[in-house]
Batch of 2 targets.
Target 1
Amino acid sequence: MRTIRFLLVKEFKQIFRNRSILVMIIGMPVIQLMILPLAANYEVKNINIVIVNQDHSPVSAKLVSKINASTYLNVLSHLTSYDQALKLAEDDKTDLILQIPPHFEKNLIRDNQQKLFIAVNAINGMKAGLGYGYLSNIIQMFNEELRGQMMPRSKFNVAQEIELEFTSRFNPHQVYYLFMVPGILAFLVTMITGFLSALNIVKEKEMGTIEQINVTPIKKYHFILGKLIPFWIIGTVVFTLGLMVSFFVYGIVPAGSILLLYGFMWVYLLAVLGFGLLVSTYCDKQQQAMLIMFFFMMIFILMGGLLTSIDGMPYWAKMIAALNPVSYIIDVVRAVVLKGSGLQDILPQLGTIIVFAIVLNSWAIYNYKKTN
Amino acid sequence: MDTRALNNEKVIVVDKLTKRFGDFVATDAISFDVYKGEIFGFLGANGAGKTTAMKMLCGLLTPSSGTAVVAGFDIHKQAQELKWNIGYMGQKFSLYDDLTIIENIRYYAGIYNLSNQQISDKSEGLITRLGLQKEAKKLVGQLPTGWKQKVAFSVALLHEPRIVFLDEPTGGVDPITRRQFWDMIYESAEKGTTIFITTHYMDEAEYCDRVSIMVDGKIEALDKPAELRRLYEAESMDEVFYQLARRAKRSE
Amino acid sequence: MRQFITFVKKEFAHILRDKKTLLILFGMPISQILIFGFALTNEVKNVKIAIVDRARDEQSRRLISKIDASKYFEVKKILGNAVQVDNELKKGTIKMAVIFPANFSSDLAHYNTSQVQIVLDGSDPNTANTIKNYITAIVTDHQRQQQSNVPALYQIIPEVRMLYNPQLLDAPNFVPGVMALVLMLVCVMMTAVSIVKEKEMGNMEILLVSPIKPGMVILTKTFPYLVLSLVNLTIILLLSIFVLKLPVNGSLVLLFAESILFIITCLTLGIFISVKTSSQEVAMLISLMGMLIPTILFSGFMFPIENMPYPLQMISNIIPSKWYYIIVKSIMIKGLGFSAIWKETLVLATITSVLLAVSLKSFKIRLE
């Protein structure tokens, strides 16, 4: 234990002496957490539509006014030609184009049916589906209404209706940043501790000081612990700062136990640091370590359920996500902060992370070779 | 200058020590002994295999074959115990630039498990001896190279090892500092510490009790500097070295 | 020119010698394009749900099996009461629960209406909203099937054309984004680090006391990365076209020209960072830790930029990958020509010149 104390004193001295790194460790997550959650917003109301109405009849006017009244669709402009509208789609200004053909009303009454043309800017499949869904819903409702007006009552069967009553738990006002803040916080902590720990041993290798350590009788696990503990503490500090930002800027008070949150974070940090140290035992240059960490961080963030849902991914990708520690921390931080989940709710995740921590750290200690 | 009586207790016994990196034989079955309190010069051109051999003796590299017993410990089986008894100063700089002299000392002393009393005594002694009272709280990175090397050597001796390995310790150091450095080497040799040193300076080779010269992974000559000069009918070690090194088939 | 060639050769020798780095440099974009190209999806499907069926009759069972059969939902649990629903929501095992009342069918029969309760995990509003739309659509559809005897009169039939991406694949949206992301971060980091490394090792001094102009020093350091990035780009494009089946509807030449511009922008950003920092560690932390999430978010391929608060939209304007993402989408997917993207091109060119000017200026100051 005494040896570790000496190791820790040295690591902390070095960290505190390097002001620019210290500022980044502390400042960057705070700033990013203050800005980024607001950028991650899927306001579904902002779906733009351009209407090309070539009919000018009472029926088409009524349909247009229905669309105008919708809160989900934002009518960008009324144009007369489809080509003009397409131009707006090309520039990504509009997501939907509705074209009401000439003689729409006349044909509808004469032929009992008539077509409407909808063009969807489908590059973003999700937004396209959503926008189309809204629009066709409006058209359908309008159609039913129209039929109700135009057809004699007796012909019309009384429809049975299943009413859906929605209740939304945990985030009743549907604020998107409530969902993003805990997730981004979890990832920021991961990134800082992961990068720092991956760089650290490699830096000693690059500088040559590692050789001096290797001729000393120091035990491997002492050395690794001496590297792990400082970053573990830094991770805790960053996490605490993040929670404070969540509270003061976003007014988020964890619904669940703070202690549980910290408890899980502590175990999780061991896993991330173990991973960082493992990477650093495999590299001889900081640049290599950085590139490898970058590779994994990209996978961690894009396949961690932070930005897109894991449920929708193909099976093999879900397997990758299951091996991604970040997916667990994001899950748990969100659950505890937003849903107030308790220990028994997160036991499976906790178990998995403990296994990760043990495997990664043992692997790192094993692979840290004092002798070549 | 050399008043020390040579002890005949062997502290390093090397037997057919070999290291291969793939097809390349860096160190080719070398054998030699080093005695207690001796200053043993380990010479050779760049790429002759000196550093590889030294790293094996320090337990930094595992030999491909052959054995060596250092300070009574087998480098194969007892690398950990061995490390308590040796000091090392590598080619690359071994202190932390972003720590002060005192902090570096405390760090290494801590690793060697010295008591707090020992640590404060030792660091005080070391700083007074080197006359670094004013610089003690300066970052090592701000010191001139020569001073760094002297501090690094003292740090390598902190735990009173039986053998110190020095890998080109005086590279890039001015002549006066080199002189002082050698005074420090003699001082510790007199206390019974064995010094194992590699160098490119042939005047330094003259300061050693015995000198070995490696060529292409083999030890081509090993004796007292004076004997070697006589054997090769040379006026200086420089000439001896030149005669031997010229035979080398491989360069860097 | 001969000087230039000599130095570029030296830089290439450095880069090509380090096999590990080289492997990561090429392996990473390839594997990432493949992984993300196939895995990333904005679509919400296979949502795990629970059912509380107090009715247990023909009607409710038919609706349940209809829900389960859809690709959007997967009935994970059959629960007995609302308390259990809450527990499962907390555990995160389900995202929605459908609760049928005991008198579901009799209400329908007698009053022509019945209420089904839907409990959602609202912590993710996006998913919650989407789920809401899906379940509504399924139930509406179910009802229509039950009463298909209504005559088709005055029917309005929407005819849909999905522009640019008729099969609603995710790749056309994500691949250009990942391309922009990977190219940008790799270029920025590699240049920043390789220049700072020279500084750290003291080699920069040697270069600076030599009669080479500082501009030349920088140029020779970045040129190899331009070449490497172009190789990378070509591999990424080939993968996108032949493996991910992405179309190139526009001009390939234009796409390459724009990509070169973007790569140069990123290299300049790397130079800028390297001029402003003095250790590899700081340069790396800035170019990755500082840039990773902002680049992902502000490129616009994850979250629409027009939804962001105004100040953040302003920030997004200085992120080069945002403009490149628009350019790639326009050329590859929409098949547009230069006239449609000249504005974006101009922005990239401006960012590049500003960064270059500032870097060269600070670089000279260091000399004096």
Target 2
Amino acid sequence: MTDTGMLRFHVPEPEVRPGGAPDFSNVPIPRAGSVPRPEIDVDPREIRDLAFSIIRVLNRAGEAVGPWAGLLSDEELLEGLRHMMTLRAFDARMQMAQRQGKTSFYMQHLGEEAVSCAFRKALAPGDMNFPTYRQAGLLIAGGYPMVTMMNQIYSNEADPLKGRQLPIMYSSKEHGFFSISGNLATQYIQAVGWAMASAISSDSRIAAAWIGDGSTAESDFHAALVFASTYKAPVVLNVVNNQWAISTFQGIARGGSGTFAARGLGFGIPALRVDGNDYLAVHAVAKWAIERARRNLGPTLIEHVTYRAGAHSTSDDPSAYRPKAESDAWPLGDPVIRLKNHLIRLGVWSEERHAQAEAEILDTVIAAQKQAEEHGTLHSGNKPSTRDMFEGVYEQMPPHLRRQRQQAGV
Amino acid sequence: MARKTMIEAIRDAMDVSMGRDERVIVFGEDVGFFGGVFRCTAGLQAKYGKSRCFDAPINESGIVGAAIGMAAYGLRPCVEVQFADYVYPGYDQIVSEAARLRYRSNGDFTCPIVVRMPSGGGIFGGQTHSQSPEALFTHVSGLKVVVPSNPRDAKGLLIAAIEDPDPVIFFEPKRLYNGPFDGHHERPVTPWSKHELGEVPDGHYSVPLGKAAIRREGSDVTVLAYGTMVYVAEAAAAETGIDAEIIDLRTLLPLDLDAIVASVSKTGRCVVVHEATQTSGFGAELATLVQENCFYHLETPIARVAGWDTPYPHAQEWDYFPGPARVGRALIETMEA
């Protein structure tokens, strides 16, 4: 028998830890415009390489280049910039509100604004997202009122969810935003089920599933891919790879496979990687995948390659597990700055107008915040009643809950 | 009206529901072309097409999770988990998602699904085909939990479950599929064709969720039972000569507390029986409720007969299964205490 030595246990490690110099040299970044745009009805087997590349439109000079460019008008791009800036300002104010004790918890999108804002604009009315906690851009870009979002965050008397759910776990069927669970990955297979139902009903609406890089390790991710593949469900399977699952680097969930997108290939699902910090690229790839779904061509998996520039949540401190300057070193830059530079390059925007817009947006967010705070915050002012706590567990309150409500004295 | 097995009655309930409401769809492992390992969905795919009755991959969280998404869309999925013993991969989807969707979204999204699964022992199924995990679901706010004991109820309860606006966990005591079973495994099987509760009305009818049935009126002691144990209790009463009032709970959540209180207040004695393991079993909840509501009527302590707190064994099936001898001893002790 050959002497193979002792077995060794392998635990992957990120390239750099706190104190080290950030290094993304192992992340190959293709040139903007270099990845071809396949026909919508392409055989998935012919585009397997797209699971290992990165589709990019905006180059370093701020130009939109290549086959995925040219889908959005100047007005649409300006609107997209405004959505991302609004989300960023909203996050900053709510992050601060949490620090001021006005709510218990918050999660911001810093660096990832393009993913949900751009994706939302590729959807049609009636389509349904099954989001995670970091896709509020779907609401902002869909025109959902910021005041209502804040009422939910504050769990105040005007909270549409009656104080039952953690901050930012929004729900709006009307705006195509499925109730956020807070559990990870469960929504992924539900999105596939929704899409199957749409096909069963001969409808034209499609679903979009959302998950983070870390949660792709959950069994429900596998369940979703099996079902989506088997039934050719009209669903777009989004993986937002922001490099970090709280303190755990993406290599722990990814294991030995090259990319998260590559997970789709074994299921026969076409898989594309996109520059998640490029508003135009996210929108173009979303549009492609959504059209495939709507044309009965089945599911598409999109890996949005981005970077979580902020903490996981208000309960997290990233300086404990990654270099402080890592986000500055992220090679795909900042989505707001990149779109701003593109619009300046197009001659429809300027630094002055950008600064002015920033101030205007901040005013709008502050005005919404004042309006929301008139309805109370978590620990002050009016809040949903104790009676509300007992309502809505079932459509009809069963006798045992009625008795408990009486015991509670409400 | 025809005599039917519980399998035929369950199939009839899905057939009637699918015929009346095109939002009702049925899927699960082996349920499509083949019609289910217990044949509960036989013929449904041929009758309603592959869009409404189809085979699913072996993935219970996928089956339940997809059903939740379909319900959020507006369909009314009635899914089969092949054995209750296999539901656990889908447990997170049931507990964290189906049960809470209405509450956490304040009714923005709802989850009218039915998860059917064969449960209970008596078929030499060992630990992976014999479990009675109902208490794992009665502990979850937002669910309804149903355990029929005969074909007539099974059809009416399943139709009610499919029409219910909230998620329903529907246990089918598999030892009752083909006939009532009183625990006397050495005797020949009695078919449902020889039992009056095998009479199943044609067409649409429902048995309301949350209403118990009195299977045997009596004045000595109240027996609270459901599923297979209803027949075991009947045999125990007959064999001991004790005039037991046997209540078939039919629905565990919501529970018909009024029927329980009325009976125990009359008899002054109570025996709680179930197949499931004893510790933290549903019997603990029943005994507590009887104590809270009927304490001053009780003449003797409440007794409990349940499966032993071991995994469900194979060779020792009849040492494990709480048969008429154990229930009979509990009845006698309760009368003599």
